[in-house]
Structure formats: structure tokens, C-alpha cells
Amino acid sequence: MRKPFFLSVIGLILLTLSGFVTPPQGYQVGDKAMLFKLKNVDGKMVALGDASATKGYIVVFTCNTCPVAQAYENRMMALNHQYAAKGYPVIAINANDGTLSPGDSFDEMKKRSASKGYAFPYLLDETQEVAKTYGARSTPTVYVVKRTGSDFIVSYIGAIDNNRDNPSEAGEKYVQKAVDALLAGKPVETPTVKAIGCGIRWKQA
Amino acid sequence: MKSIHTWLLLSLLVIGQASIAQRMPVIKYPALERLLTRPTDTVLVVNFWATWCAPCVAELPYFEQLSAAHATDKVKVILVNLDGIGQLVKKVQPFIARTGIKSPEMLLLDEPDYNSWIGKVSPDWSGALPFTLIIDPSRKQRKTFEKGLTLAELETELRPFIQ
Question: Which InterPro entries does UniProt cross-reference here (chain A) (predicted)?
Fold first, then answer.
């Protein structure tokens, strides 16, 4: 009875070490979001839940260098402009490894935030643990989290809208619809939307 | 069939063949799905890429080398471009001409509603590029890679499929 269990444990360890186990999926809608604490471009630490007046957050895994993230940058800023006052500010997180992607280094993040005038935190996920825990695999990816008691519940995961190149032609503004629904106390109709983006630049072992 | 119709059909085919050399076929999702699921005697190595994806561009030569190395094996390397049809002439074709990629089959997937088909290609795929699948001839066994691959990794991963 013990031997099969022991062998399965060894097997699982070997599989994990060999990298054949598929990576964890990260959050699904309904999960409690990790209360991360990361360094902002102004050098100060920012935590989810710091701003006590918020109803939730629009967490955006983004970066400087990905052309898709760049295409959505103005829209990300517009989301903050539209929803921060309503209780859903944006928090942007860069998880790209700065060595593999020098354009996404902390210094470059500071420059980008300053030159574009980000009115929201732009945090560095140095160890990439936040991105892995959330399950973010590419940029840009949005997680809308809703404050529920002392928790933040993941309520939307995915793309900002359905037209990367032509914002005015985007018939489906997924994040806006999700946040509007949450503000109105209604269910989010389209809670997850996959999109093509740049894979996050994971640190090499 | 009247001989004039036969000649018309043949001429169209000849013209079609000549323009394929300069063109990249544009396909919709159903055609891609048939490609990924219809059994043949050939292993497929399918890579999704875009000109704007730096790690994708960096690994394209490896797919070309893989394709050349297995020219006599029953292996087909397919590069599926996701720049979008609006970029075919102004960006993708010049890119191909500049880099001189030849041997793999190259297709442009014209499906801007990403959410409608990403999950169908693979439940393991988030939509992040680069993304590669290796599929066996029966189309029942497959392995997916949501990351860049080196030539050595491609060779290692392909080996069990061609044995």
C-alpha cells in the first residue's frame, strides 16, 4: 500500500523537476486575489488595498516594450481616468525580466511613467511571483478585482477590448463593461477573454 | 467539358502557382483547424508568430533550419502569422522578403476575434506569443510550448514524434 504512494510522490517530483508538468493556471474568476506589495516607479511600496476608499482595482499586467501593450497604453490610461473616481483605479504591473528585456528595466519604467504621465502606480514584479500567482502569461492582461470585505475577488480576466489597432472600432469594450457591471451590482456578462499578446519574459533558470 | 473550359482552368492554375511564390496564403480558422486535426502521414510543427513579437522573430531561423534538417522525413513545419490581414502587404511580405525565410509553409491567419479561436487551437494556450505545437500524424498526440524554443529544444522535442 505504501509503495505505490511513495513511487507516485517520486514520480511527481521528477515530473516537476523535468518541467513536464504544465505550469499552474493562475486565478479563475471568483478566486481571492493575492494582496501583493511591489515597488512603484517612485521607489515606494504599493499594496493592493492600500487605498481604502476603492471598490476594487483594474490590475493590468503590462510592460514598456510589447507592441500590443503599447497599442493599449492610452486605453489603459483612459480606464484610470474613467474609473478611478468611481472606485476602480488602475494598477499597472511589469513582470518582464529586465535582463532579458532591457527596455523593461526599472529605470525604463520610471521614464515611461514620467513621459506619459501615468496617474496610477506602475509596479515592478521583480521576482515574477505576482504574475505567476495571478496566472498572467502575456501583456497586456487585465484582472479586475472587486473588494469584498477584506478580500479582493477576481471578477474579470483578459483583454481590454476586441480591436487592438482601432480603438474606435472596438465593438466589445470588455473591461469597461465588466467594471460598469460591478459598479451596478450586476453580474459580469463576459468574465474572461483571451487575446494574442507578447509572452511575459520569464527569468531563465 | 468543353476544351476551352479546360484551358481556362489550366491557365488559372498556372497563374495561381506563379503568384503563390510572392503571396502568403491567408486563411480563416476553419482551414487552420482542418490542418491541425486531419490525420496525414506527417508530423506537424506549428508555430504562431508576429513581426511585432521579438522572441518570435528571433526563433524563426530555428524553424527554418528544423524544416531543412527534416526535408526527407515526414515532418511539416508551418508558420502561422498573426499580424493581421491589414499588415500583410505593408509589413509581413516585406519582412519575409528581407529575412528570406523559405522552407516552412507560411500562412497568415485572418481572425481578429482572438477569443473565438485561441482556446480551440489549444486549451493550454493563453494567447501569448510565441506558441508552438508538435502534432503526430494521427493528430491524437500533441505537445504545446508557450515560450521561445532553441533549435536544440526543437530537435529534442520533435524526436519522439518521428520515431
Answer: AhpC/TSA, PRX-like1, Thioredoxin-like_sf, Thioredoxin_domain
